[in-house]
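User: Could you check the structure of this?
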Amino acid sequence: MEVNEADVAFMTGMIHHHSQALVMSALAPTNGASEAVLRLTSRITNAQADEISVMRRWLTDRGRPAPEIGQGSLMMITGADHSMHMPGMLSQQQLDDLAVAQGTEYDRLFLTYMIQHHNGAVEMVHDLFASDGAAQDEFVFKLASDIQVDQTTEVARMQQMLDAIPRDPNS
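Assistant: Sure, the predicted structure tokens are below.
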């Protein structure tokens, strides 16, 4: 089966990208996130875990390697491996800062970083659509379009949430 290499690169990259969002979201319950951020992280986790599964299946159905995601591949989803060349990926320092943040500071950092992260995913979709011959596969086109719409919508929602967090008068 002939496969466009830009489609393969998009699927592979987006698996890593979504995986980092899962790592970020998994911190919420232990870092004192607000109820609103806990609901958001739950939605992000459910949606992106499902998308990872379908992207992995798309790759394997075409005889392509699908990234394994889990503890053994933690370097693939932290900033060290992808932050310099994959849009929106957090650096290791940003992940470390998020991991130690608590309460309102966690909420503020999570929303700030997830906005960065989602905007990067939208940029990846734009790059895919700009690649010659890419996204001609109906599934790839629909998935990429859904990612673009969903994440653009979530960015707007997260910006509203971020704007509603009271500023620390001591900062």
